[in-house]
Amino acid sequence: MAKVKTKWICQNCGYETPKYIGKCPDCGEWGTLTEEFDIKDQKQTKNTTVDSTPICLINEIEISESIRILTGFEELDRVLGGGLVQGSLILLAGDPGIGKSTLVLQTAGNICSNGKKLIYVCAEESGSQVKLRAKRLNVNSDNLYVYAQTNLESVINQVDVIKPDVLVIDSIQSVYTSNITSSSGSVSQIRECTNILMDIAKNKNITVIIIGHVTKDGNIAGPKVLEHMVDTVIYFEGDKYKTQRLLRSIKNRFGSTNEIGVFNMAENGLEEVLNPSELFMKERTEEITPGSVIIAANEGTRALLVEVQALVGTTFYPAPRRVSTGVEYNRLLQIIAVLEKRIGLNLSKYDVYVNVIGGIEIDEPAADLGIALAIATCYRDVCVDADCVIIGEISLSGEIRNVSNIEKRIYEAQKLGFKKAIIPKQNKKFPENLDIKIIQVPRLMDAISACISRKK
Question: What tens digit of pLDDT does each residue of 376-395 get?
Fold first, then answer.
């Protein structure tokens, strides 16, 4: 006879308790505990299976040259570390309407065009709806199977029959397994379904891509352990009202987590941007205004040139406002403090707004000098040279510290036509015999004097 056991699970963090409590003691959220049932058969005996796979030395393990599958998108392959690794479990998350299903369906078409088999499990749409989107994206292949199903056991049966190279689940919050009595989307269902998919990926050597939703706070919906179970976690970011999309990896067991991929949402789907710096510079006007500078940021193996804008205005509040978009808030406060103490700018009576154009987030210290110059030039109502790029980290004493990968940053600036680069004096090694003028500065005051061209 089956024994019914009741438990309460927090839908935010996965905390379990035998009785209901209003506030989750783990994450501190109110009203997130949901009642779920575990049905266990008392007559069921626990079977212990022994795996007969022999143990081997690491030097004896052979790696096949075809262990990675190219996706057809250089930007996606860059973020993944060179392509899809066979037998890996990949989680793709993003806001609703950002283009997750579009990216996966276009990738599926590229993979199938190279002779690979792929099963696309559409748990949220019908087969005809997926066909309409595929027709709009010009995706057509005899190796692409579409399966409109939410039951995971039925999906496993089709995997055993077709034996695909790649399996796509859209989305993990919509599928369910009969082993758990709770509804789909609950913490128990997401955790159990991911466990089953991980077993399929490792034992059958199938690459599994699961699409996940995010909460209003920007976190992946479901238990936090979901991110620890998978091999790679990729976020698809961007403003759905704009065309630019950013692909960012926050976990990757087979590559770097510093790489980003840039896409442009067009009428016929996503188009990869192979030169993001040119895209970010395209919207820059010829008339330079105070508070606008160009910085050379570093994202993984790629140097990006982006525009940073600052606005300094008189405040009408007892405490001035500090607003940052694309820049860490505490970093902005530190730069403002250095400008007040070392340069003598009285910013305590002014609101300061800083924005990185293009929707990209800059979190490396090499952007400090550019942010400081944007604030200082807007405060003094002067302009930075239009053909000048700024690189450098600021210390609390006002000194300009050296940065890494200075060669890549300077080469990228020269390629886009910049004539002058302001870099730290501590950077001893940099390319010579270039068409770009290198100005090395030791302190923040020297950088301000070197970059100002004229008054407004």
Answer: 999 999 999 888 999 999 99
